[in-house]
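Now read the record:
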Amino acid sequence: MSNLGGSLQRGVRNLRLYDQADLEHVALVRRLKNGGFSLDEILEYTTIRDQGVDTIPTRLTLMADKITQLQAKQEAIDASIKYLEEKMLILEAQEKLK
């Protein structure tokens, strides 16, 4: 399954049929998306994953890189929250002086 949608089979009335591997693939894609991976990164990860256990070091590197990226974003968000909280305190103090 080297694509984001997995394999596609059709049944009666042209309805899509999914097997357990398809469901697991969708679950993996959703977990990676929720973990901050872009669709291109998910495609890269799943393509590598489909190549077998020899790719575990590469997958670990991809995940470690994503953690580093998310931590940087988290630091920026934390700094923004801190600024906004400090600004709110200043505004609330000014409001009380009116």
In short: The radius of gyration is 22 Å. The chain has a mean pLDDT of 90. Helices lie at 20-34, 39-49, 56-97.
